[in-house]
């Protein structure tokens, strides 16, 4: 139930808030389609597995497909903007990965042989590490000229967050060592995002914006330690938190403390991709 609550927040709050941070007028169709798909997807989470839940999850998948169509229609950027664009494209495509897992899980089908519980966690992962973190990393890359830390750190974050997300996904199909490598790369990227956010929060236009951005940065510093400890334990057999504990700590922190606070904070700061 907790994972369903977090995914609902991702669908109904985080993704639409993130889409409002994209200033490109061409994203308007995806913005209009998303609420229909998000509501359908959220309802599907709370129904018993079966035809109705699968049908509603498919509506969500259609909205994610519109987002993918917008992603592939974006014009080619100059080379200096490639790190930012890599992060933005990762964010825009991530809901489609989540949708694939959701449709399979709601149908009771073990996609690629994965257990249904793992598919449910995949849905959550690609809303927050996939969409939210990558979008914020891309946003910071776009603002690099105005950030105290400059472009190098921003480009590093814009590249490592997508790379870490991809490695974690590949680890599902290959080996736990690959998943651990992905967790380490993703953690490095997320910590860089948190550091950049913290630096910006000190110059935020008002106290509430500074509080929201500062909270999102502080949460990343702690929550990604849990992610590494879990991946390390899975790869080596060392004691590590259970998936239920990870959902209650890492999951809640990243969904509410990072993603929601970051989306609202950057919107208040007037930042746009």
Number of domains: 1
Strand content: under 5%
Number of helices: 9
Oligomeric state of the chains present here: single chain
Helix content: over 70%
- Residue windows where pLDDT falls under 50 for at least 5 positions: none
Overall mean pLDDT: 90
Shape: globular
What value does the Rg take, in angstroms? 17 Å
Largest sheet: none
The count of DSSP E runs of length 2 or more, i.e. the number of strands, is: 0
Quote the distance from N terminus to C terminus. Answer: 34 Å
Structural class: mainly alpha
Keywords: Membrane, Transmembrane, Transmembrane helix
Transmembrane segments: 54-72, 84-104, 116-140, 152-174, 180-198, 210-232, 244-266
InterPro entries: YndJ-like
Organism: Actinoplanes nipponensis
Commentary on this structure:
Helix content is 80%, strand content 0%. It has helices at residues 2-19, 28-46, 51-73, 82-107, 116-142, 151-173, 176-201, 207-236, 243-268. The model has no long low-confidence stretch (mean pLDDT 90).
